[in-house]
Amino acid sequence: MKNITRRTIITFFLAAILLAGTGFFVGKLFLDGSSWVSLSANTHIYSNGVLKSGTLLDRDGKVLAASNGGNWTFAEDSTTRKALLHTVGVPQGTISTGAITKFAGKLAGYNFIMGAKHLGSSGNDLYLTVDADVCDTAYKALGSHKGAVGVYNYETGEIICMVSTPTYDPANPPSISEGDPNYEGVYVNRFLSSKFIPGSTFKLVTLYAALEEIPDIQSRTFHCDGSVQIGDQVITCTGIHGDLTLEQALNVSCNCAFGQIAEMVGGKKLLKYAEAAGLTGSYSVNGIDTKPSSFNFDSKDQGDIAWAGVGQGKDLVNPCAMMVYMGAIANGGKTAVPQIISKVTLPGGLKTSIYLHKKTEPLITEESAAIIARYMKSNVVNNYGESRFPGLDIYGKTGTAQVDSAEASNSWFAGFIRNENAPYAFVVYAEGGGSGVSTAAKIANTVLQAAVQNAPAE
Amino acid sequence: MDKLFDFFNWILPRLSWAAEGLGQFFGNLLRSIPYALSWLFANHVTIAELYCLLVRWIMPVLALMILTSILRSMIRVKNPKERWGYLYSPDLGRFPVTHWETLIGKGRNCDIVVPFMTISKVHCALIFDGTKKWRIHNLTERADVSVNGVTIDGSAPIESGDNLTIGGVDMEFDTISPKEASIQAQRRLFLSQSTITPLVTTCLLTVFQMLTVSSLIINRPEHSGAIATSFLIFSGVMWGYILFNFFWSKTGLEPEILAFFLCSLCLAVTASSRPESIHKQLVAILIGMAFFLALSWYLRSLKRVVKLRHAVAVLTCVLLCASLIFGTLTNGAHNWIYVMGISIQPSELAKVCFIFAGAASLERLFKKRNLWGFIGLSFFCFGALALMSDFGTAAIFFVTFLVIAYLRSGDFATLSLICCSAIAALVLVLKFKPYIAARFSIWGHAWDDVSGAGYQQVRTMSAAASGGMIGVGSGEGWLHKIAAANTDLVFGMICEEWGLIIGLLAILGIASLSIFTFRVVRSSRSSYYVIASCAAVSMLVFQTMLNVFGSLDMFPLTGVTFPFVSCGGSSMLASWGLLAFVKAADTRQGASFAVKKVRFKNKKRKPYRADREPQPVDDFFEEVLEGSDADYPPLGKDAAEPEPGTGFNDMDDFLRDLDFLFDDKGGKR
């Protein structure tokens, strides 16, 4: 009997597993409850698949979208409607990362204690961090280019501007036939959910790897004859640059120099620093997961590695992740995780949930960040010209990505500005924009001027 | 120093983060009160709306009170060991016999440890049949056992007053006197009474039921009559049972009240999801209770239980074969039989039979081959269930099999081997029958296929989250429109309509049964009851696990029921049947009608030693009333337990170190 009664402890273990699992469920419910509630079959907050209640506003309280019993109205200005289509989303849920779809639970007034059902059913006011005016400016500046513009505060994480094109007016939706080239990827937010060939902007990652792995890299010189043979491939350059220091190589964005640096660092190390820079991971922007970037650094051919190191070949980078890396350079290591929700309040203005500023892991060492920032400044001073960016203390790197299928190259500009009230990192991507300096840098200037002007004074 | 610096670097931002959060939280909390008041004044709210809101808040509080009182009673329960007799040795002292099955030997794991060189580790077993006959079994080949000087061959009857010689040690066996028996009964009754009277808990439960009915009637007006009568009848039967027991001075009603609470939830779920069939569900509950009473009564006598074991083993096979042959394919499993318009799931009944047949008394445990019979039965069950493609039930049988096999043999090595081979078999099955693997492939990825394979799970999660802490109100949910909502997904339905708190309490209720059993079996009479009750509770707990975690995509969704709460007749019957095993293990004095009072004959015998005569009754009772927590006061002095020796195996040695958990005395020996 003694042995048998002792062995009954096994039932105790089973019960402990049951309770532990239940605890795990409660934890998950606490963290993910709001997104579970957002399931469109949930008739507590949807009727016929359309969210019943809630109001979306920008950071200044401008109404972007509002529902009254399932009838949605959008911002008054059609430019704002188009500019913020991907941020706001549509009630039908076709834009899966849109706030109406992703934050349905919060809009409908879900909270952990009261659930989704309340006495009053007017829904909550959800304030986004975006500034509608800055987004308008960005949308206009992008013009006919397909692309994305993102600006965020690298100290607080607030996304000031998030625009993706092509877009349409949700108040008067056009009929979009499948395969229409004008509306290619119109339901995808290019800033959060796409990845593109980064062009020379990726040299900032190669540079980071070189600074960490090759101690005397800053004192070395490189030679450019317009092209260089690495492995089985010829790396071509935009010009014949002659002898260059590292800084000069970045200034003129010399492919020959960076191809050689990539070869010296090696594919494995390059991948390691792309990972360290946070490019291969996914950021959760208030629960919207960004698309991880992808690289192919394990090729046997050193030529492939060299092309990957200059941002061509099979590299694909997510614009949002690139912007966060810029924030990390600006901040000297850690930076804020981007956020899109500013606050959620009851209609009377009482806050119902808490959003705290989160920091990333260190994406770059402090020393390398300082050197890279210095070089980025020197890019602006020596190459692009400070006059292009009047009044901005700007640090940047352009990119011109060649796509085999397209005639014109895609234009990139990524960087940050130093400004007490407007510590912003940014990324601009314009398809078919040609060289980075001519198109993307121009768009960036227009958007940043607006962003700085609209920045809230301390 | 660097490490310290790093630590501060790590902790400080997190601390400030937490402080920021807390500050915001309390700021908001303060502001919310005037906001709520001003909102109430500004908006028009009807009385019905306010009433429903109030009920939503009150129900979880009531449920919490009910569960706490049951739990407190279960945890505080004291179940001192019963004494059935003594072995007296002139040199070693007096050894109390505290079970119907007592192992005697030198080893530390014996019930009676006789620390003497010539005695084997496990020498012999003293077994009582529950009526009047005692037998002594020789368990060792190296030494003799003799009764009144006659060496026994295998086993022999032994009576009060007989002389027993084991390994050269002379002892006298005596059953306790009627006088001591009556003192013991009074003392045990005093110690084991529930800390609360069941009436208070039942009153709370009745209020809970009334509130449920009232809000269900508001939301299901077309069925208000059926709902009201069903709850009324159920409540009436509950009160009848409680009052009958109360006036019959039976006090340990915790398991039943818990079952009543869960059955109330079951009725509420039925009223919300299928109000037209609530009468059917009520009848199922009543039949379940009748089955519970009948089985409990049958379990009173170990003799007749042991006799019926083989027949029940055959019945288990017959039941499973019946569903294999006559079963109709429903939801991918062959486990329903339709007889005269009633659907039965024989595999549910087979669960009760499996435990009935699988538990064993100590007498059977001596023989190794008996375990093989059980293993044969188990594998027959797994095979039949696998053929039915009822993998949930197969898993339940497997876990129960493991529990029973472990309790019977204590052999971890063999069981690990069985587990490994089961896993290997599973891998093979999944490899050669890919369609079975496909059924479980959605596990963990339900949100990737919201309208396909993850359909039920994501809806359960969404509905459960929508309920919040307090639920959206009885009958106001939508999950009940989904297939199997009131059976496989019932946890989601409870969370949606009655809130997370009540959902968690339902789980806690089942889990608490295991704590209860774990404590109460310390003084069970026969290993049959210990094994049966533990197996039954493990089955209930594991079934709950499969049901709850399956519906929430933490396990593969296998379609098993939540005990007592899921709608359906067969599962209700099985749940009550399993509870009968728990009841039969509860030997608290006057706690359970499933435990028989054994009367002692007043037999004349010569005193062996002067000091073994009982103390005067009055003195003894004084001590009882002073509330002394010590075990039985010395009626003569018991022999002290010796220092630890070697155990049967490592696991049992480990468990012995945990003994302090089991004793009411807190380790004092």
Total number of beta strands of chain A? 18
Number of separate strands of chain B = 14
Q: How are the strands of the largest sheet of chain A arranged?
A: 5-4-3-6-15
Discrete helix count of chain A: 16
Summarize the structure in words.
The complex is a heterodimer of chains A (458) and B (669). The mean pLDDT of chain A is 89. Chain A has 16 helices and 18 strands. In chain A, the strands form 6 sheets. Chain A has a 5-stranded mixed sheet with strand order 5-4-3-6-15. In chain A, strands 8-7-18-17-16 form a 5-stranded antiparallel sheet, sandwiched between helices. The termini of chain A are far apart. By secondary structure, chain A is an alpha+beta fold. In chain A, 35% of the residues lie in helices and 19% in strands. Chain B has 669 residues and is α+β, with helices and mostly antiparallel strands. In chain B, 58% of the residues lie in helices and 9% in strands. Chain B contains 20 helices and 14 strands. In chain B, strands 2-1-11-10-7-8 form a 6-stranded antiparallel sheet, with no helix packed on it. In chain B, helix 8 runs antiparallel to helix 9 and helix 9 packs antiparallel against helix 11. The longest helix of chain B has 41 residues. The C terminus of chain B is likely disordered. The interface between A and B is large, with 54 and 86 residues.
Quick gist of this model?
The complex is a heterodimer of chains A (458) and B (669). Chain A has 458 residues and is an alpha+beta fold.
Which key phrases capture this entry?
heterodimer, A: 458 residues, alpha+beta, 5-stranded mixed beta sheet, 5-stranded antiparallel beta sheet, B: 669 residues, 6-stranded antiparallel beta sheet, 20 helices, globular, disordered C terminus
Compile the SSE list and pairings.
The complex is a heterodimer of chains A (458) and B (669).
Chain A: H1 2-7, H2 9-37, E1 46-47, E2 50-51, E3 53-57, E4 63-68, E5 71-74, H3 78-83, H4 85-88, H5 99-102, H6 104-107, E6 125-128, H7 132-142, E7 147-153, E8 159-165, H8 190-193, H9 203-213, E9 221-224, E10 227-230, E11 233-236, E12 242-245, H10 246-251, H11 255-265, H12 267-276, E13 284-285, E14 288-289, H13 302-309, H14 319-331, E15 341-345, H15 366-384, E16 394-401, E17 410-417, E18 424-430, H16 440-454
Chain B: H1 2-42, H2 47-76, E1 85-89, E2 93-97, E3 101-105, E4 112-113, E5 124-128, E6 134-138, E7 145-147, E8 150-151, E9 155-158, E10 163-166, E11 169-175, H3 178-192, H4 198-219, H5 224-247, H6 254-273, H7 278-299, H8 302-326, E12 328-330, E13 333-339, E14 342-344, H9 346-358, H10 362-365, H11 369-387, H12 391-409, H13 412-432, H14 434-440, H15 455-467, H16 490-520, H17 527-551, H18 569-585, H19 617-625, H20 650-657
Parallel strand pairs in B: 3-4
Antiparallel strand pairs in B: 1-2, 1-11, 3-5, 5-6, 6-9, 7-8, 7-10, 10-11, 12-13, 13-14
